[in-house]
Design goal:
mainly alpha, 2 strands
Length: 197
């Protein structure tokens, strides 16, 4: 069920585009999800810039990321409508076609995450989990100095940063294509929904 997608209107209309389009603001991202998003972004950046220089701060950031990931897992089942994971499977299956259509400039309209955004969410959550857990393992007596633990932490952390850059680029691109301030939406929690009258 894809009720969150807002289809573009088909067929002709006699009025001007301004006359045909009606927009309204709807709450999409709840406060806990927005706080989680910005806290996670801050602690990921902090962790990226502190290894081998400020180890205590780096560990604090890493453990905080683990806590934030645990919260997101819980909130994915008990949070508000657009925070839940209920559409993840459907959106992931739709992601390849969505990305192909995106190359043609066809973005569709989604109130929550579009299929590309869902794919990025899953990739980031999984990679962050690998990075943070392997980092926590690396400072234990059992796994300290074990090469594959350290390599896993290093390489997964590099992948996280690549994904973050792609995420930011995707947000900017979609904001331009859809003429929508997605950063503001993640601050206020509200998005403008356009429909045709």
């Amino acid at each position: 069920m894809m009720e969150e997608a807002v289809p573009e209107a088909r067929g002709a209309s006699t009025g001007s585009p301004a006359d045909r389009t009606v927009s309204r603001m709807v709450t999409v991202w709840d406060l806990p999800l927005r706080l989680w998003h910005w806290l996670l972004a801050g602690f990921v950046v902090l962790a990226w810039f502190t290894p081998n220089v400020y180890d205590g701060l780096h560990r604090f950031a890493g453990y905080t990321v683990i806590g934030l990931l645990a919260f997101r897992l819980v909130w994915g089942f008990f949070g508000s409508r657009y925070a839940r994971f209920r559409m993840v499977g459907v959106r992931l299956r739709a992601a390849p076609r969505y990305l192909l259509n995106l190359r043609r400039g066809m973005t569709g309209r989604y109130i929550g995450l579009n299929p590309a955004g869902t794919l990025m969410l899953v990739a980031l959550l999984l990679t962050l989990a690998v990075s943070a857990i392997s980092g926590a393992m690396a400072v234990t007596v059992t796994f300290f100095g074990i090469w594959w633990v350290e390599d896993t932490h290093t390489y997964s952390s590099d992948v996280v940063i690549v994904l973050v850059v792609l995420h930011v680029a995707g947000v900017v691109l979609m904001g331009i294509l859809q003429r929508e301030n997605l950063v503001r939406a993640m601050i206020t929690g509200r998005k403008r929904i356009r429909s045709h009258s």
